[in-house]
Amino acid sequence: MENTLSLNAILSQANCEFLVFDLSRRVTPISNKDFVAIEENRMPYPFPAQQHAQIGIAFWQPNQAPWIWFLKMPLDERGLLNQAALGDFIQYVAQAMGATLDKTPTEEEQEKLAANPYTFNPQDDKKAIFHAFLTAKLNQPASQFYDHAQHYTSGELGWEEWQGVGLQGIADLCTRMNKHNNLTRLRKALSNMPQPPKYALLGCLEHCDIPDSLANRLEEEIQVMLSGGETDLFLLTAHVRALAGAKPDVVHRIVKSMLGTEELRHREMLIAIAGRCWQALSNESLLDAFLIAVADQKDQAFFQQMVADLVMIPALRPQVLGLLHGSASPDLLDAVKQLQQSVKA
After folding, report:
1. Which of 157, 134, 168 is nearest to 56 (CA)?
2. What is the torsional sign of CA 239, 291, 82, 32?
3. Rounded CA gap, 240 and 262, in Å?
């Protein structure tokens, strides 16, 4: 086992099936075929964040409950998995668990395995949605919190009675929105629930595919906020993030609208667009407008950080490099020039 520099090979040798999810940006599945290609450096990591891949791997043997690894692996400048780090982690696995994964690890082995620099603890919402996706994918029952979340989002408990609603229940509801009339519940809840549970719901939705009827409701909410008095920018940003899994034309329209309004181009909104709605930035004019908005923050480190983050996403890399090396609009060139002058001042 020590000579094998592949998680796929280890899991195959142990007769394990496995599922892989990206946790770097949105929680999204990575096919086993793509994961093997990523491990072998035949393809760059598809959705990196801050030059790292955050990966959730669930693996199990026949008739056994899954074990889960949450891994954070460095990438090189081309977005390829750092092979030394991968080999290092596999050595930790070998030392902790011996030659096979075909037995349940003892407490001591689990502690040994956890004490390495490559495992991490995801944010609560990502962890909840990961577990919800996993149980749904494996046709396992939802958590014990699912039933209560269903009753709450149907309105029958009273909208102010949200304190007992578990985040895992909301995540289960979102990943099963095509079952048990859950989509109707979600649309109703968005219009009625107070802010604390609404933030939890929006945080789960940003990892899900959003059907048109739910996207329409989220857009209606955004329009109501924008047509009111002073807009709650954090709540608005949460709605934009929640639309990340809507159809591309919807995401494009929302991002264009946010970038087209000066008072909405605040830092949190820009981070949300780059972190969740980055697909819209494959449109060159939107990418140009986005980078102008980032440059207008007059923060050189922030600008460099955002560019470095976007250029690592394989789907955006050609466009970002193209803008940086000649195809930028005069407005973007001017914004970058002003940013550089503000740094010198």
Report:
1. 134
2. positive
3. 16
pTM value surpassing 0.85: yes
The per-type count for the chain, helices as H runs and strands as E runs, is 17, 4
> Residues 89-145: pLDDT tens digits?
988 888 777 656 666 667 777 777 777 899 999 999 999 999 999 999 999 999 999
Tens digit of pLDDT for each residue in 54-86?
A: 999 999 988 888 989 999 999 998 999 999 999
| φ, ψ of residue 29 in degrees (nearest 5) | -70, 145
CB crowding 256-295: b at 16 or more within 10 Å, else e: eebbeeeebbbeebbbbbbbbbbbbbbbeebbbbbbbbbb
- Phi and psi torsions of 57, nearest 5°: -120, 120
- Two tokens, residue 28: 């999204």
Residue type, 89: F
- Cβ count near 149 (within 10 Å): 29
* Residue 122 DSSP class: -
Dihedral of the alpha carbons of 4, 39, 66, 181, in degrees to the nearest 10:
-170
Instruction: Give the tokens for residue 29.
Output: 């599945």
**Long-range pairs, 136-144, Cβ under 8 A, ≥24:** 136/172, 136/175, 136/176, 137/19, 137/29, 138/19, 138/66, 142/169, 142/172, 142/176, 143/168, 143/169, 143/172
**Which residue carries 């609603």 as its tokens?**
165
Question: For the chain, how big is the Rg over CA atoms in Å?
Answer: 22
Q: Which contacts (CB < 8 Å, 24+ apart) does range 319-324 have?
A: 319/281, 319/282, 319/284, 319/287, 320/287, 322/284, 323/284, 323/287, 323/288, 323/291
Residues 6+ apart with CB under 8 A from 111: none
Give the contacts of 74 (CB within 8 A, at least 6 positions apart): 51, 52, 82, 85
Could you tell me which residues are beta bridge partners of residue 53? 73
Q: Which candidate, 211, 227, 170, places its Cα nearest to that of 193?
A: 170
